[in-house]
Design a protein that fits this description.
The chain has one domain: Up-down Bundle (Rhomboid-like fold). Helix content is 70%, strand content 5%. It contains 12 helices and 4 strands; from the N terminus they run H-H-H-E-H-H-H-E-H-E-E-H-H-H-H-H. Helix 5 packs parallel to helix 7.
Length: 260
C-alpha cells in the first residue's frame, strides 16, 4: 500500500513537473508545437499508424479533411536535423512573439496564419491544377519570421550562426526563398505561397498595432485598465507561488515538521 502510494505521489509530481516546464519560460504553445513535431517524427520513423494521412494537408482533399489546414504544422517533415533547425527557430521567433502577445493570442495567430497559407495553396491548385502536400514547420515559420522581424526590424542575428544580419533583411530573404521554392512549380503558386507572410504582415501592422494603441479595427476605441493589465501579468507568478507553497506544505506534512 505504501509503495503504491509512493508511486502515485511520484507520478503526480511528474505531471506537475511537466506543467511547470511548459509554463516556465512563458512559451507553452511553442513547446507543445515542437513536442508534437518530435512525437510525429518518431511515429513516422517507426511507422506507427497513418499519422501523415490524418495530419498533412493535401490541396485536393481540403473539404474531405478540413482540419488539416490547422494540423499540418504539427506533422514533422524531413529528418532530425531539419526538425532541430526548425524547432530552434520556432523557439527563438515564435517564443518571442508568444511572450509578447501571450499564449492565447499567439496560438490564434499561428494556426490562423497556417490555415491562410493552406487555403492559399488550395487556390493555387484551383488555378494551376497542381496539387500540393503541406507538412512541417517551415512554411508557418516563414510567416512567423515576418511577424518577428516587423516587431524587431533592427535586431541583428547570426544567419546560419555565422553571418550578422538584421531581421528586416532576413524577412526579405525569407520571402524570396518561399517564392523561389514554390514559384518553380508556377509563378502563380509562388504568389499564393506567400499568403501566410502577407497575413503576418497585416496581423502585426493592422491588428496587433491597433490593439497596442487602443484602436480596434473599424475605428472603435478600447480602454485598457492599467490595473487589470498588471493583474493579468501577475497571474503566472501567482500560479508559480501557489505551486511552490503547495509543494512546501506537502513536504512538511510528509516530514512531520510543523507548518509556520
Amino acid at each position: 500500500m505504501i509503495c503504491r502510494g509512493g508511486a502515485d505521489m511520484q507520478s503526480r509530481y511528474t505531471v506537475e513537473d511537466v506543467k511547470d516546464w511548459l509554463i516556465r519560460d512563458g512559451i507553452p504553445a511553442v513547446k507543445l508545437i515542437i513536442l508534437a513535431n518530435v512525437l510525429t517524427l518518431f511515429l513516422i520513423i517507426f511507422r506507427v499508424g497513418a499519422v501523415k494521412n490524418y495530419l498533412s494537408f493535401y490541396t485536393p482533399s481540403l473539404f474531405l479533411a478540413p482540419w488539416t489546414v490547422f494540423t499540418y504544422p504539427l506533422l514533422a517533415a524531413g529528418d532530425v536535423i531539419s526538425l532541430l533547425f526548425a524547432g530552434y527557430w520556432l523557439w527563438v521567433a515564435g517564443g518571442a512573439l508568444e511572450r509578447s502577445w501571450g499564449t492565447r493570442s499567439f496560438s490564434i495567430y499561428f494556426f490562423l496564419m497556417s490555415a491562410v497559407t493552406a487555403i492559399g495553396f488550395y487556390l493555387g491548385t484551383l488555378i494551376t491544377g497542381q496539387p500540393v502536400v503541406l507538412a512541417g514547420l517551415w512554411l508557418p515559420l516563414a510567416g512567423a519570421t515576418i511577424a518577428f522581424a516587423m516587431r524587431n526590424p533592427e535586431e541583428t542575428i547570426l544567419f546560419f550562426f555565422v553571418i550578422p544580419l538584421k531581421l528586416k533583411y532576413l524577412a526579405l530573404i525569407d520571402i524570396v526563398f518561399v517564392f523561389a521554392a514554390y514559384g518553380s512549380m508556377s509563378p502563380v503558386m509562388g504568389i499564393f505561397a506567400l499568403l501566410g507572410c502577407a497575413f503576418s504582415y497585416l496581423y502585426v501592422k493592422r491588428i496587433r498595432e491597433g490593439f497596442r494603441h487602443g484602436n480596434m479595427p473599424g475605428g472603435h476605441i478600447i480602454y485598457v485598465d492599467p490595473d487589470r493589465q498588471r493583474q493579468g501579468a501577475g497571474l503566472l507568478k501567482q500560479y508559480r507561488d501557489y505551486k511552490e507553497n503547495k509543494r512546501l506544505r506537502d513536504f512538511l506534512g510528509r516530514s512531520n515538521f510543523p507548518e509556520e
